[in-house]
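Suppose you are handed a protein chain with no further information: no name, no annotation, nothing but its sequence. What can you learn? This example shows the usual starting point.
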Amino acid sequence: MSSTLDYEPQVFDDQPQQESQRPYRLAFVALAFIVFFFLVMLGAGSTKTELTIELRNRGDQPMRNVVVRLPDASRVMGFLAAGGERSVRTRATRNAPVQIEYLDGRGRLRNLTTSVRLQPGEVGTVRIDLSNTRVLRVYKETRVSTRS
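A reasonable first move is to predict its three-dimensional structure. Written in structure tokens, the prediction is:
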């Protein structure tokens, strides 16, 4: 007795399934690209609205508990060794001078007011050279940003 098949064998073809998944893959890749783009732009925008204030201790004594005072905020820098440098990032929101408060080598509280007045929206870098009791020099490399 011979056996014959009365049905046709099924051929499994993955091609139609892959084609139906292709639009979803493209949409996922496009969505991932858009999210990545906006995250990059958000990061770039945040750095463009900030101001860096750098303090350099040119004196022969350390400065302890250094605080940079602005009208809307105070930024703690902590210990600044003789010959050392520290920086903080902030935003300028009101027209006001930069004030620096610290304890000198003998433990006396010092308050210094710089000649720098920050404008709202100002971005860039302000470098301030200090001695034990006074502001030696101020370098201001800033501009007013059009971004808020």
